Every structure is written in C-alpha cells, then in structure tokens.
Amino acid sequence: MTKTSFLTRSEAVGLAILALIIFVAFPVMLDDFRLNLFGKYLSYAFVAIGLVLCWGAGGILSLGQGVFFGLGGYCMAMFLKLEASTPEATAIQSTPGIPDFMDWNQISALPIWWQPFNSFAFTLIAIFVVPAAFAFVIGYAMFRRRVSGVYFAIITQAIAAIATILIVGQQGYTGGVNGITDLRTLMGWDIRPDGAKTVLYFVNAILLFGCLVVAMAIRKSKFGRVLVAMRDAEDRVRFSGYDVASFKIFIFCVGAMMAAVGGAMFTLQVGFMSPTIVGIVPSIEMVIFCAVGGRHSLMGAVYGALLVNWAKTTFSESFPELWLFGLGALFIAVVMAFPNGLAGLFDDYIKPRLRGWRQTPATAPQPAE
Amino acid sequence: MADQKKVPISPISRRAILAGGAALGASLFLPKGLRAQDFPTDQINTTGLAVTDDTVQVGILHSISGTMSISETGSVQAEKLAIEQINAQGGVLGRKIETIQEDGASDWPTFAEKARKLLVNDKVASVMGCWTSASRKAVLPVFEQHNGMLYYPTFYEGLEESPNVIYTGQEATQQIIAGLDWVAREKGAESFYLLGSDYIWPRTSNKIARKHIEDKLGGKVVGEEYYPLGHTQFNSVINKIRLKKPDVIYAIVVGGSNVAFYKQLKAAGIDMTEEAPLLLTISVTEDEIRGIGGENIEGAYACMKYFQSLENENNQEFVAAFKEMWGDDMVIGDVTQAAYLGPWLWKAAVEKAGSFDVDKVREASPGIELASAPEGYVKIHENHHLWSKTRVGHALADGQYEVVFETADLVEPDPFPEGYQ
C-alpha cells in the first residue's frame, strides 16, 4: 500500500476554502438572523457527513438518520428544559419544578430517567452514548443477520416512523407533538439573544470541522479502505477473513453519533426539539442533502446541506405558494444531470480546468445501487 | 362614511347606525376619516416597524404546504379578506396594509424560522398566524424575544397567556362547559364516553370535560381513550361504546382520523340521528365535514363558537364576501371566522392606541370590542382571549350545522381554570 499523507493538497485547499466560507464569509456577509439560519443548516451537515461515511463509503443507506439527530437533540433539550423549569418559573403549575408539558399531562413527579439530565456532564455523554448504543443494537440485529441494501433502508425508515409515534404517544414524558419547547438558558447563559446565537454558530462550525477531520481520517485509514471494499464486493471481503458485520456496525454508530451532535446543536440554535425532525420525511431530506452534495464527498455533504436548506428558505420566502415545486425541480435536476451531486459536478467540469491540480484518487468505481 | 357601499362588511354594524349618534360616538369603529398625515410616521412608530407614510406591513404565517395546509388555508383566506376590506376602508391610521406571507410548511422549526424572519428582517407590525398548538409553542419564544404580536385563531387547550399573543379562538373551558351543560340539561345525559386524538388539546379538553361531568353535573365517565394522530381503526372503541352504552360519545378526534371514525361509526350501525348514544364533538367544523361527508355525520352535535349558518347580518355579509372572494363552494368553519377577527382586532387596537408600537397595541387591546364580528359581538379580555358566546350545532346531511343552542351571555375566557387542573 502506498503511503499517503493525511491530507492531499487538493483536500487541504478544499478544507481551507470551506473554512474561509464558514468562518469568515458567512459571519461578515450575513446579518444575525441569516447567520443563525445558516447555523441551523450546518447542524444538518453533521448528519450528511455521517451519511457520506455510511452510504457513500460503506454502502449502508440509512433512511432513519433523523432518529439519531433527534436523540441528540432530545438529550440536549431535556437538559435545557429542566434548567428552564425551576420551581419559581413554574409556580403556576399543579406541581412546580417539573417541565410544563408533564404538568399538563397529570404527571406529578419527574420520571427517573429524566433525572440524570439535570447534569450537563451526563447530558454531553448521553448525546454520544445514547445514539451510539441505539445504533449498535440496530446494527447488531441487522448486520449480523446480513440484512443490507434496500432491506436495511426500509427497516431504518420503519424505525424513524416508530420513533415518531413513540414520542408523540408518550407526550407526558416527551412533550408529544409539540416537542420540548421554550428553552432559555444553558448553564445560566441565555441562548436566545443574537450575541449568543453568533457564539453558537461558531461552536457549531468548529464541531463541524472536527467531525470533518475525523471523517477524513476514517476514510483515509485502513478501515476506510475496507469499508469501500465492502461496499463494492462484500462477499470477497468476507471471504478474505474480515468480519464485515463489525465494520458496518462501527461505521453506523459513528454516523449516528455525528447526527446526534448535529441534533444537539440544532436544539441549541433553534430553541426547541420536536418529533417533526425525527420522522421519515426529515430523515429522507437528510439523505437528499447528502445526495445533492455528492455521497462520496465529505465536503460535498456540507455544501449539499447548505445549498438545499438555503434553497428551501429562499424559494419559500420568494414563492410561498410554489416553492415546493422549485425544490422538487432542484432534486430532479441533480439526480438526472449530476448523479454524484455537487462534488461530481466539480470533479467533472471544474477540476479539469484548474491547472496544476494534482490528481487525487477520489473514489473508485461506483457501487451498483 | 361616504364610500362604504362597496365594502362588503361595514365596520359599523347597521344596528349601530340605527342606534343613533350616542352609540356611534361610543363605537370604536367610527370611521374618523383617519388620514395618514394626521399621524406622522415618526410618532406612531417609535420602534422601527415597517410603517411608512402610506403603508404598514403585516405578516401572515400559516402552512400552505404539508399536512396542515388543508386546515390552514381557510385561515389565510379569511385574513386576506379582512385585510382587503380594511384597506378598502382606508387602512389602519390611514395606511394600507401590505401582507408578507410565509409558509410554515406544517413543520414547527420552519414556523420558528419564518416568525423570526417576519419580526427581525421584515419588521412587520403584527402577525396573523399559526394553527396547531405545536406551531404556536414553536414561535412563542420568538415573539416574546423580539416583542411581536401574534393573532392566533384556533380553539385550543388554554394553559397559556402570553403578552405577545391575542387568542381569537376559544380556550378549552369556553368551548366545553356550555356544551356539556346543554347536553345534560336538554338531553338528560348522565354517562359519557370520552375519546380523542392523542395530543395536548384533546387530552386537556377531556380532562376539563371529566372534571365538569363528575364534579358539576354529577354524571359519570364510562370510558376515556386516545388514538395516535392519523389513526384509522376505530372498530375496537366502537365495540366498547356499544357495550358500555353511554348517553353521550364525546369525541375530539382531529384531522384525517375523523373520516375513518365517523364512517366506521355509521357502518357499525350507530345512527347518530337516533341520539342513542348522542355524539357531541368539539373538533369537527364545516371544513372537516367536507372530508367526512355530511351523510356520515348527520345527527351529530358540535359545540363551538361559530357556525357558517349563523343568522345575523354580520355573518350573512361575511359569508357572501368570503364566497365572492374565494369561490361559491367554500365552507367556513369556526377557526376561519376566528382568523377573520385577527386583522380587525389589531386595527381597532392600533387606532385606539394611536400607534403601531407593539407595547402600546398590547396596552390598548384589553377591552377592545368588535360589534361587526360574524359570530356577533366579541371583546378582548385582560388575559388576551375573547369573550364570546358558545353555540351547539346539529349536523345536517348537507354538511352544514343548524344552530340549536347559544349561551345567553358571552362566556368569560379562563385559560387557567381553577378546579379543572
């Protein structure tokens, strides 16, 4: 195996450009409101990066990433809600000191499994561990039985549906359809003013780059190569002595954790969490971000999440009655004309024109999907 | 007062004119021939809202795509009608209302995003919007943070009283108690079977209903059940109902589930026109009946504040104007009418305050009266809800309700009812 440095030159340039856009261009060019919106878009980029690893590299198409996004978001929301539900702030309730939606549902004591979320340290750990554990259980059950491809996609979609029904049904414990709303402070720091939103934007951006670097490292590692090999010829890898299921479970868990970090940042920036972000439709939208960006390109995923969400906002502001058609046309155009998304477009048309660009071995043959 | 002939709904009800000068003097809706130049922009807008010498911008924030669009479209239409009528009369403080419409897309984070856009970027003077409680809960912190004013049209569960919201629909006790009293008094009902979709509004409403039935009416609740939103299999509960033989089925099923529920009731041989058991609902307006089919719900009773068939001049003019603007096949439900009140209540508050400033509008709002409301006279309570009458309608096969009862007086809104918690 040839020795490769951690970043090729083109990747380093790509990262630098992305950093320039996210850390400099957006904060300079956008007002507070727009910057906060872009922060929300970037929280979806975490999911898209995880999907590039699972789907683009590993060939595991999950239509249930919203569940992990939601788990991360709900963990954060539970912490924030408990902080907001002081006995003083909830004095008008029958039981002061518990979240308002519990009081409305005749629950008179904080459920045991809510109590650890009084601790911020526990919450931070839970944001990683809960989705990872859940992904492990799903992965173990599916991949050990060699469930893959469309069957896996359908099962994850079913899980997204089940998660929504569960959250909506258990409204005394989860806030139901309304979700967990009216979140105010994080350890005493008010997350609502514009200044706080700007800080959260940068925290979000730094975490996103952390995720990007981790994802790149995984792709570059021997493990990443095994993943690609598995995607393209699973049986050959298995016959070569690799434990395919373990590799799949691992990458699925990584994708879940990344989604969960995005979910937690989403909660902080938007100020609430609700089951509408957990279900089938948002989960599929997350796959679309990844597809538009290019499912083989980690940075493409970030651009995809930005572009699709920006288009969604812009179209819907300009043409409130017709915007869905515009968005639909965008997806169709991308799939028809650029099956490898923005990244493919870049590779095919722009890169050849750039003089002195060193050829990078991006991804080999396309998976047969 | 000269050119009011073309306006479908006069801001002064004809009765008020007949009542003579004294009544007119007291009316808030006296067209004072408000001219923009009498109200310099820098004096009536000290907080940088989108108000110019001739225009004022108002936001409309409903779902026009996604699952809620069927319900919310009527509200958008009613709000646009009201705004067009207000503009035809010269606008608010001499300024024409321009609307900025945003699509909440049945998605709560989108609602929060669009609310922020309307308040922060567009600096609208007020927002007419939201339908579900979830969307209202999502935008509430945004309105409180940026000090906006939301006119919220839906009947809802109560338990809320925001300084930044005027609730133009009924809160739960207003809608529930009068109906239960009526059914106990007129129909001698003693046993009730409560059921509903599983979320905050039906649960809170049934909680209030149960307390009232058990504590005040001395009746009994023989069953209480909830089904997920979108549920379509009601056979098991229908069997239980036949077994328990309640006098009243109290149904708060919402959305698409309604279609399945009423069709299955009918298919199971429960003929609602026989009133054994009698069906009383608080969730089926004329809009929902279009989906259910009039023949499937004929004979049921609904309890709310407005029915399209209300016989008063305000309402006849409103229905005619609505159909003229949006088409003859339109039906108007309770929430649509409540949405229509929003722009009028806002206009009245602005003109009473002599300012578009949100703080002054809020201060001026309690006590605002609207004699021209299609549902009849309403008044804003200190708690930002409306005093309104509650009515019981009897469903006819043509999809309309025949009003069989209305409260003698306005019912006081009580979003945090003592003894019902």
From TrEMBL, chain A:
<dbReference type="InterPro" id="IPR043428">
    <property type="entry name" value="LivM-like"/>
</dbReference>
<keyword id="KW-1003">Cell membrane</keyword>
<dbReference type="Pfam" id="PF02653">
    <property type="entry name" value="BPD_transp_2"/>
</dbReference>
<feature type="transmembrane region" description="Helical">
    <location>
        <begin position="199"/>
        <end position="218"/>
    </location>
</feature>
<feature type="transmembrane region" description="Helical">
    <location>
        <begin position="12"/>
        <end position="30"/>
    </location>
</feature>
<feature type="transmembrane region" description="Helical">
    <location>
        <begin position="239"/>
        <end position="266"/>
    </location>
</feature>
<keyword id="KW-0472">Membrane</keyword>
<keyword id="KW-0812">Transmembrane</keyword>
<dbReference type="InterPro" id="IPR001851">
    <property type="entry name" value="ABC_transp_permease"/>
</dbReference>
<dbReference type="InterPro" id="IPR017778">
    <property type="entry name" value="ABC_transptr_urea_perm_UrtC"/>
</dbReference>
<feature type="transmembrane region" description="Helical">
    <location>
        <begin position="42"/>
        <end position="64"/>
    </location>
</feature>
<feature type="transmembrane region" description="Helical">
    <location>
        <begin position="150"/>
        <end position="169"/>
    </location>
</feature>
<protein>
    <submittedName>
        <fullName>Urea ABC transporter permease subunit UrtC</fullName>
    </submittedName>
</protein>
<keyword id="KW-1133">Transmembrane helix</keyword>
<feature type="transmembrane region" description="Helical">
    <location>
        <begin position="322"/>
        <end position="346"/>
    </location>
</feature>
<feature type="transmembrane region" description="Helical">
    <location>
        <begin position="120"/>
        <end position="143"/>
    </location>
</feature>
Automatic annotation (TrEMBL), chain B:
<dbReference type="InterPro" id="IPR017777">
    <property type="entry name" value="ABC_urea-bd_UrtA"/>
</dbReference>
<dbReference type="InterPro" id="IPR000709">
    <property type="entry name" value="Leu_Ile_Val-bd"/>
</dbReference>
<dbReference type="Pfam" id="PF13433">
    <property type="entry name" value="Peripla_BP_5"/>
</dbReference>
<protein>
    <submittedName>
        <fullName>Urea ABC transporter substrate-binding protein</fullName>
    </submittedName>
</protein>
<dbReference type="InterPro" id="IPR028082">
    <property type="entry name" value="Peripla_BP_I"/>
</dbReference>
<dbReference type="InterPro" id="IPR006311">
    <property type="entry name" value="TAT_signal"/>
</dbReference>
